[in-house]
C-alpha cells in the first residue's frame, strides 16, 4: 500500500484525502477480475480526473478569493470573504509603481528556477521600454559592429533582464511570504497597456507596502544617473516614454559666468516654495523662455538642469500632426507635478498657423505675405493641427494646467512670439543665447581637452596609428574593429592646455560661430589639441567660404522662386482681363447696360485678389517693434521681481 502511495504522489502532487481515495480505488480494482490493460485505463483515468479536480478546485478558490480591484489604480488592495487571508495589489503600466515593481522583479534571483519567463535587454516601464541596468544575466559584448557607438571604455555592456511572461502566474518567495505574480495586457483607448497583479496570503497589507517601497528605492537608485524623456503622442493625447538619457553634467555646458548658477538656483528655489505660492494664491508654476541662435546650448542646458534637479522631461512639439486645443489641454493636465515641460521651437508652431481666433488657423502677427499665410493655412490643414493661441494659453495656465511643473520654451525667433505667450507669469525668466564669445570658446576647448592624466579614451588617441579613425560625425565615431582596446590618453599639463585654450579663443571671432559649430570642429580634432589650435584659422576661412556659398545659393534660389511667382501672377492677370473682356462683349451683344459693379476692380475682388491685398500688411514692422520690446524690456515674474538675463555681455544681475 505504501509503495503504491509513493508511486502516486508525483502524479497527484498532493497528499491526504485525494491520494488515499485513489489508493483505495486502485486496491478495489486490483481485486476485481480485470485485464491488465483495463486496470491501467481505469487507474490512468482516475488519476487524471483527480488531478484536474484538485487543480480546478484550487483555481476556483483563488478566483473567488481575489475580486479584481479597479483597473488603472496601483497598489489597490482588494478583499472579499476569504481575503481575511489573501490580499491582491494591482499595478497599472500607466503609473510609476508598475515600473518600480517590474524593475524589482527583473532583479529577483528566483527567475533562475522559473520555467517560463521573458528575456529582454530592457526593462518594461509604463510608457515603453527602458535601458536595463539589472538582471542576473550580464555579459560584456564583444563589439562586432564596426559602427557601434563607443563608450570611453571602447566596449558596451549589454545587460539582460528576466521579467514575468504575460498571462502566466509566477510564484516568488519574499520576506516569509509567497507572492503570486501575474502580468496581463489590456487594451486601452491609446493602445495596449500592461497590468501586474500580486497576491499574497497575509493578515494585512504591510508586506505589499514593504514590497512597493523596496522596489521604489531600488528603481530610484538605478535611475539616479539618467533623465527620462516623454514625448507627447498627439494621436492618442497621451505621453509616451521616449528613452532615458545619461545625465549631462552642468560643467559641460559653457555659458557666461553666473547664468547656470542663476537658473539652477531659481529652479531649486521654485521647487521648494510650494507653500509660499499657496499662501499668496499664486499658481505654482514657473516658465523659462530660452531664445537665441541655433546650436547655442538651449536644449543642452535643459537636459542638464533636469539631471541636476532629478526631474523627467516632457516634450511637446506644438506643430506636430493632429495637435488641437483639446489634445494639448489633455496633455498638459496629465504631466506629473514635478517635472520639466519643454515646448520646443515655439516659433515653428506659429508659422504652422496658431491663431488667437479659435476657429482660424492663420498665423497671428506674422503675415509677412499673403502667399506665406495661405501656405501656412494649407500646411496647418494638411497637418491636421487645429491648435489656437487661446487654446495654447489656456493649456499653459488654465484651471486644468498642472501645478509644480517647470515650463521651458525654446525659440530661435523671439520676435515671432505673441506677447501674450511670453508675458511674465507664463514666461518668468528669459535667457538670450548668442553665438560663442571668446570666453565660451576657451571654456569649450578646456572641456574637450581636460588636463587630468587619468582620463581613458578609445583607441583613436594620439598614440594609435593614424587612420584608425575612419569617420567622425556628431557624437559617433566609427572605428576599426581591431582597434577597440582601451588606452589611457596622456593629456597635456594644465598649464599647456590653458595656453592652447587661450590661443584658440583669441583666434575665434566674437559672436560669429555657434558653440555647436565650435564643438563640431573640436570633435574632429579631439585627440590633436595642438594641431587643433594651429589649424583653426584655416577652418574659420573654410567655414566662411561655405557660408558665403550657401548664402549665394539661397539668394539665387529665392530670386528664381520670386521670378516664377511674378510670371505666374502676370499670366493669371492676363487670363482674368481676357475673361473680363469676353464678359463685357457678351453683355454688349445682349444690349444689357452693365451696372458699375462689374468694373475691373470688383472683378478683381471676386477673383479674391482684394483679400490678398489685405493680407499684405506692414505686419513685419510691428513685429520688429515687438521683438525690440522683448529685447529691451525687463520681464517681471509672478513674485514681482524683475528677471532679465543676457547670456552674452554683462553677466546677470546677482539679484536675479
Ligand atoms: N553653450 C554650450 N555649452 C556646451 N555645449 C554646447 C553649447 N551650445 C551648444 N552646445 C553643443 O552643441 C550641440 C547643440 O546644442 P543644443 O541642441 O543645446 O543647441 P540649441 O540652442 O538647443 O539649438 P536649437 O535652437 O537648434 O535647438 C550639443 O551637442 C551641445 O553639446
Automatic annotation (TrEMBL):
Origin: domain of life: Eukaryota
Protein name per its UniProtKB record: Mitochondrial chaperone BCS1
Family: Belongs to the AAA ATPase family. BCS1 subfamily.
Organism of this sequence: Meripilus lineatus
Compositionally biased spans, kind Low complexity: 455-464
Topology versus the membrane: Single-pass membrane protein
Compositional bias ranges of the Acidic residues kind: 136-149
Biased amino acid composition, Basic and acidic residues: 547-593
Chief location: mitochondrion
The AAA+ ATPase domain, residue ranges: 284-437
Known catalytic reactions: ATP + H2O = ADP + phosphate + H(+)
GO MF entry, a single one: ATP hydrolysis activity
Keywords, alphabetical: ATP-binding, Hydrolase, Membrane, Mitochondrion, Mitochondrion inner membrane, Nucleotide-binding, Transmembrane, Transmembrane helix
Keyword NAD attached: no
Amino acid at each position: 500500500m505504501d509503495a503504491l502511495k509513493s508511486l502516486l504522489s508525483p502524479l497527484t502532487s498532493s497528499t491526504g484525502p485525494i491520494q488515499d481515495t485513489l489508493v483505495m480505488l486502485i486496491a478495489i480494482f486490483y481485486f476485481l477480475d480485470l485485464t491488465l490493460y483495463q486496470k491501467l485505463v481505469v487507474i490512468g483515468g482516475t488519476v487524471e480526473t483527480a488531478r484536474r479536480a484538485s487543480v480546478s478546485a484550487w483555481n476556483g478558490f483563488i478566483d473567488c478569493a481575489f475580486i479584481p480591484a479597479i483597473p488603472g489604480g496601483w497598489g489597490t488592495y482588494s478583499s472579499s470573504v476569504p481575503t481575511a487571508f489573501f490580499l491582491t495589489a494591482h499595478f497599472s503600466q500607466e503609473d510609476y509603481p508598475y515600473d518600480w515593481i517590474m524593475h524589482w522583479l527583473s532583479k529577483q534571483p528566483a527567475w533562475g528556477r522559473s520555467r517560463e519567463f521573458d528575456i529582454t535587454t530592457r526593462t518594461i516601464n509604463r510608457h515603453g521600454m527602458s535601458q536595463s541596468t539589472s538582471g542576473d544575466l550580464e555579459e560584456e559584448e564583444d563589439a562586432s559592429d564596426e559602427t557601434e557607438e563607443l563608450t570611453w571604455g571602447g566596449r558596451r555592456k549589454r545587460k539582460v533582464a528576466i521579467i514575468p511572461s504575460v498571462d502566466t502566474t509566477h510564484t516568488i518567495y519574499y520576506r516569509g511570504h509567497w507572492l503570486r505574480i501575474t502580468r496581463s495586457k489590456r487594451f486601452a483607448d491609446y493602445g495596449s497597456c500592461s497590468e501586474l497583479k500580486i497576491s499574497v496570503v497575509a493578515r494585512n497589507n504591510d508586506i505589499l507596502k514593504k514590497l512597493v517601497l523596496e522596489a521604489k528605492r531600488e528603481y530610484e537608485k538605478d535611475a539616479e544617473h539618467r533623465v527620462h524623456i516623454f514625448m507627447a503622442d498627439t494621436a492618442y493625447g497621451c505621453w509616451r516614454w521616449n528613452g532615458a538619457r545619461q545625465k549631462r553634467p552642468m560643467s559641460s555646458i559653457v555659458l557666461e559666468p553666473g547664468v547656470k548658477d542663476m537658473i539652477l538656483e531659481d529652479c531649486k528655489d521654485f521647487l521648494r516654495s510650494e507653500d509660499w505660492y499657496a499662501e499668496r494664491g499664486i499658481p505654482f508654476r514657473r516658465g523659462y523662455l530660452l531664445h537665441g541662435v541655433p546650436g547655442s546650448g538651449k536644449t543642452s542646458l535643459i537636459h542638464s538642469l533636469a539631471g541636476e534637479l532629478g526631474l523627467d522631461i516632457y516634450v511637446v512639439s506644438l506643430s506636430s500632426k493632429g495637435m488641437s486645443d483639446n489634445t494639448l489641454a489633455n496633455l498638459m493636465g496629465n504631466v506629473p507635478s514635478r517635472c520639466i515641460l519643454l515646448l520646443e521651437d515655439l516659433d515653428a508652431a506659429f508659422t504652422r498657423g496658431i491663431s488667437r481666433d479659435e476657429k482660424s488657423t492663420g498665423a497671428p502677427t506674422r503675415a509677412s505675405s499673403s502667399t506665406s499665410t495661405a501656405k501656412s493655412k494649407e500646411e496647418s490643414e494638411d497637418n491636421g493641427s487645429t491648435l489656437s493661441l487661446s487654446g495654447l494659453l489656456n493649456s499653459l495656465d488654465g484651471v486644468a494646467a498642472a501645478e509644480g511643473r517647470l515650463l521651458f520654451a525654446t525659440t530661435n525667433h523671439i520676435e515671432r512670439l505673441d506677447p501674450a505667450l511670453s508675458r511674465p507669469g507664463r514666461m518668468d525668466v528669459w535667457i538670450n543665447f548668442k553665438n560663442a564669445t571668446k570666453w565660451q570658446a576657451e571654456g569649450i576647448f578646456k572641456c574637450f581637452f581636460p588636463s587630468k592624466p587619468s582620463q581613458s579614451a578609445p583607441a583613436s588617441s594620439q598614440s594609435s596609428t593614424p587612420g584608425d579613425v575612419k569617420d567622425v560625425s556628431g557624437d559617433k565615431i566609427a572605428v576599426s574593429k581591431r582597434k577597440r582596446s582601451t588606452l589611457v590618453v596622456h593629456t597635456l599639463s594644465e598649464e599647456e592646455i590653458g595656453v592652447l585654450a587661450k590661443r584658440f579663443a583669441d583666434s575665434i571671432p566674437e559672436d560669429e560661430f555657434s558653440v555647436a559649430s565650435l564643438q563640431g570642429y573640436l570633435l574632429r580634432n579631439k585627440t590633436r589639441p595642438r594641431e587643433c589650435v594651429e589649424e583653426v584659422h584655416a577652418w574659420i576661412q573654410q567655414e566662411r567660404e561655405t557660408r558665403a556659398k550657401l548664402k549665394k545659393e539661397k539668394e539665387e534660389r529665392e530670386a528664381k522662386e520670386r521670378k516664377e511667382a511674378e510670371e505666374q501672377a502676370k499670366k493669371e492677370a492676363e487670363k482674368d482681363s481676357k475673361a473680363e473682356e469676353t464678359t463685357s462683349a457678351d453683355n454688349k451683344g445682349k444690349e444689357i447696360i452693365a451696372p458699375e459693379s462689374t468694373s475691373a476692380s470688383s472683378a478683381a475682388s471676386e477673383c479674391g485678389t482684394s483679400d490678398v491685398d489685405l493680407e499684405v500688411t506692414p505686419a513685419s514692422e510691428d513685429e520688429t517693434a515687438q521683438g525690440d520690446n522683448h529685447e529691451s524690456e525687463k520681464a517681471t515674474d509672478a513674485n514681482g521681481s524683475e528677471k532679465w538675463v543676457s547670456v552674452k555681455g554683462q553677466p546677470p544681475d546677482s539679484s536675479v
